[in-house]
Specification:
nine-stranded mixed beta sheet, about 35% helix, 7 helices
């Protein structure tokens, strides 16, 4: 059992395997005297077994426990103004850009090119948390769950824009519609099991759609795609 801190929220994890603690090493938190975690998550042996049986690929019990703990954390985070988005977030010049795509489209390749050509930092390569701050602005936060490449930083960055990627023969970026943005965000998140958390989640998604610019990038996996995206996204007026 140990604690981590995500989005400034202290969470206690009741784990069986050392795998998840090693994964969370950059986020470990020691409780101070009189301090208590915001909530606690645990996974039963039955949950691990059932989840592994539901998969079409091999996964160790430790890996299954880690994923299920992550899912349970995400089920609680809306009450603290945060939700998980399946995306890769890059940080450049104090601005955060979230690139979201279906599996196999190429968000890892795209964000790696941002690293190469602009020396951007990858806050998280797969499962960042998006949080609405007290002033109403949104920030993207790193988490230990970050994809097979292991790209993550225990940092946050103001969320300037969300960009949805699709493969194509040309490199073209256009504003995403409100309906498309909402649908894609809901497709790329984990819905909480609790009705109360679902309501909080719906309010957060609605605020993101309203307040954060969103784009659709049709692209090839090449340098020009990054140049096209950078030109459009860097011209967005910074949030006040």
């Amino acid at each position: 059992m140990f604690c981590i801190k995500l989005c400034n929220v202290i969470i206690e994890l009741d784990n069986r395997y050392g795998y998840v603690k090693a994964l969370c090493r950059d986020y470990l938190y020691e409780l101070k005297t009189g301090e208590a975690p915001a909530f606690r998550v645990a996974v039963s042996d039955r949950e691990v077994t059932d989840y592994r049986l539901s998969l079409r690929r091999s996964m160790t019990p430790a890996e299954a426990e880690s994923y299920l703990l992550c899912r349970k954390i995400c089920g609680e985070m809306p009450q603290y103004g945060a939700f998980l988005l399946h995306a890769a977030v890059v940080s450049l010049n104090g601005r955060g850009y979230a690139f979201s795509a279906r599996r196999g489209v190429g968000k890892t390749t795209h964000t790696a090119l941002w690293e190469r050509y602009f020396d951007a930092d990858i806050i998280n390569g797969d499962k960042p948390l998006i949080r609405r701050e007290a002033d109403g602005t949104f920030t993207a936060w790193g988490t230990p769950w970050c994809g097979k490449e292991g790209k993550q930083l225990n940092q946050s960055v103001p969320l300037t824009a969300i960009c949805f990627l699709e493969q194509g023969r040309v490199n073209e970026i256009t504003p995403a519609t409100t309906a498309d943005t909402a649908a894609r965000i809901l497709e790329g998140t984990l819905l909480p099991p609790s009705p109360a958390r679902q309501d909080e989640m719906a309010a957060l998604v609605g605020a993101v759609v309203r307040d954060v610019p969103a784009f659709l990038l049709i692209c090839r996996p090449d340098e020009m795609a990054v140049r096209v995206a950078h030109e459009a996204l860097s011209s967005i007026k910074a949030n006040k």
